[in-house]
Design a protein that fits this description.
One of its GO terms (molecular function) is protein-cysteine S-palmitoyltransferase activity. It is built from eleven helices and six strands. With 289 residues, it is mainly alpha-helical. It has one domain.
Length: 289
């Protein structure tokens, strides 16, 4: 009977996963994703059409630089779609189902009742128990495990499952933008007057301005996320600490999930198993009300 129920739970989750993916592809985010991909390849085309280092290398028969640039742009687009369409960690079942579905060991299951003095909140929208560090997203209409934020750029939440991929995407995108800015700068040509210069370089000038603005934005995002990851906190926890029940009773500089910068970074980028945050919280000895 238990095996049958587990099979049904997994089938429902699998069906819901593909239904959400279909909705993500053709839902409200379709225009955002289309615009992102269109802008990416238009800028790439401009860099090849004008007399930049990319075009000069191509015309000289040295294809290594152009091929590497195109492959890096393609990688950034693929990462964008992966983060955009990935399940960020939607909560689809109560804790008992999650423990079984995620393969939590019996020893860990025995530990969970001991941390029940912390009362789990039942979401008023999903009607499911919210694991610690999860939050309901009004846009996605789901609770998300280790919720960070809902990103309109990718039209998806950033949570437990896709946060590391989001940071990796930002890093690759930043490299692409810096490289593109350098290539655009290499294409500017000299002219006798400012009027002639502006006329001949207007397209590259606009491209430089757009790429520089995007690079600055991505740099801010990447820097802020790496900083928060090094502290093992999320954007939501950082911004709304005073309203979160499991944090507002801790000290101002106290983070019950912080294990040190190196261990935080290692756990974020290299540990793929699902974490029972209630255990980590009470293991640090931070009392909750």
């Amino acid at each position: 009977m238990v095996v049958q129920n587990t099979f049904i739970i997994r089938c429902v989750k699998c069906t819901s996963k593909y239904a959400r993916m279909f909705k993500n592809v053709f839902g409200s985010g379709f225009l955002v994703r289309t615009a992102h991909v269109f802008l990416t390849w238009v800028i790439t085309l401009i860099l090849f059409v004008h007399d930049t280092d990319l075009r000069r290398e191509e015309e000289a028969g040295r294809l290594t630089l152009p091929i590497l640039f195109v492959l890096l742009v393609l990688l950034s687009v693929l990462l964008y779609f992966a983060v955009s369409l990935m399940d960020p960690g939607f909560v689809l079942a109560d804790d008992c189902d999650l423990q079984f579905a995620l393969g939590i060991a019996e020893e860990q299951q025995d530990m969970i009742p001991q941390i029940k003095p912390f009362r789990q909140r039942r979401c008023g929208h999903c009607l499911l128990q919210q694991p610690m560090r999860s939050k309901h997203c009004q846009t996605c209409q789901h609770c998300v495990r280790r919720y960070d934020h809902h990103c309109p750029w990718i039209e998806n939440c950033v949570g437990e499952r896709n946060h590391r991929w989001f940071v990796l995407y930002l890093a690759v995108q930043f490299v692409v933008l810096l490289w593109g800015l350098h290539m655009a700068w290499s294409g500017f040509s000299d002219a006798a007057t400012w009027q002639v210069w502006l006329k001949s370089n207007s397209m590259l000038l606009v491209t430089c301005a757009v790429v520089a603005l995007l690079a600055f934005t991505v740099l801010l995002l990447l820097g802020s996320h790496l900083y928060l990851v090094s502290l093992n906190t999320t954007t939501w926890e950082f911004m709304s600490r005073h309203r979160i029940s499991y944090l507002k009773h801790c000290g101002v500089d106290e983070n019950p999930f912080d294990r040190g910068t190196l261990r935080n970074l290692w756990s974020f980028f290299c540990v793929w198993s699902t974490v029972v945050w209630e255990q980590a919280y009470f293991r640090q000895g931070c009392d909750s009300a």
